[in-house]
Hints:
The chain is built from 15 helices and no strands. It is mainly α.
Amino acid sequence: MTDNMADLRTFNVVILGFSFMLIFTAFQTGGMIEQTVIQSVQQEGLFVGASGYVSLAIIYSVFALANWGAPSVVSVFGPRCSMVIGAVMYCLFIAVFIYPMVWALYLASVLIGLGAAVIWTAQGSFLTINSTQETIGRNSGIFWALLQCSLLFGNIFVWKEFNGKETIDSKTRVQVYVVLLVVCCVGTLMLFVLRNRRPEDRSDLLNVNSGDQAGEGPLQAFKRSIQLLKTKEMLLLGVCFAYTGFELTFFSGVYGTCIGNTRAFGDEAKSLIGISGAFIGAGEILGGAAFGLGGKLTNRHGRDPIILFGFVVHMTAFYLIYINLPQSSPITEIVTDASYYPVLIDSNKYLAILCSFLLGLGDSSFNTQVYSILGSMFPEDSAPAFALFKFVQSLTAAAGFFYSKYLLLQWQLLILVVFGVAGTLAFFEVEWKTANASRKGYTQIG
């Protein structure tokens, strides 16, 4: 019976990973090229006044606010049905770029923000239900590695389609987004393959400030989110959540634009966006696979060594980006003054791609361990806990996209460094306290 339950859990985690891989092959690829595509569409006289940065900022702003209601939706519809509802919104957003209209872009941005809150809260709950104390780290790594394959496959496709093109013509745009729409729809249908189970046998998970959540209704789910937000552990983790939001903005929307706007890369600049995204994905996949396969080592030595590794990798990447890319590259490709030129060296495309890999590797370090610690600390409150994570992450991501229109590269990197240091230290504090409580046999902290 136990072996069958374990097999079912593993089956669900793998199918969940493949489904999200397809859905986010469409969305993450589309998000990385959105600003570049909109700039090209505007040359056709369409999307006048539209901004990819504004669209992404709307998505993450709505995402942040909607997270407060997402646990209630998951409580009513259940994790699997909630994920399907969210995935449909992603399909609608991708479809907008086939025949672009400004009002449709911003409306779809609102809808996908709502859908994102629901799908990610449900995903966190579903992953926790299908994990134990021993497998939560492994399952987080498996899911993350499969999810980030989306960056690899989607961006290789974009590189092939955009190669040698200074602007993205209508035919190329339609072809790319039709393929992405089909992929997103297939991923949505795969969610129906998931098999529901009840969260039995939860005694082997460390629980923080949790009561009996059985039969919890929508109002109780909302109240539980408020209660969790007031705990010291969640407030500290919130600093780390904030950092993951800022760096999500940078690698998913800003860095590709910086590369595409770097004139020193010549005709390759636009196609390098795809290569950059693929190498971000390679870093994410390697990190997720390594931390998943090394789940037993994490159980023995804790999560903090992986967080420290991710911190060092990201700080290295930020410095290399600072010296390699033009300071005005997040905003424009037009040479106007000295801010267009790199600080210390001539722009090097190979160094830029190496930094893409480092951004992905560091991101996987932080996110897999955040998933792991939330699943371990809040097994009976998984929906509210993951909703709070996504609330803070998406709020700072939205802020990041808003300021990306105006701040030079050096100031964006400074924000990342400050929050990276603070987020890492905050995570250490919670991890050490949790580990001590676990060793002493406590079931509650604080």
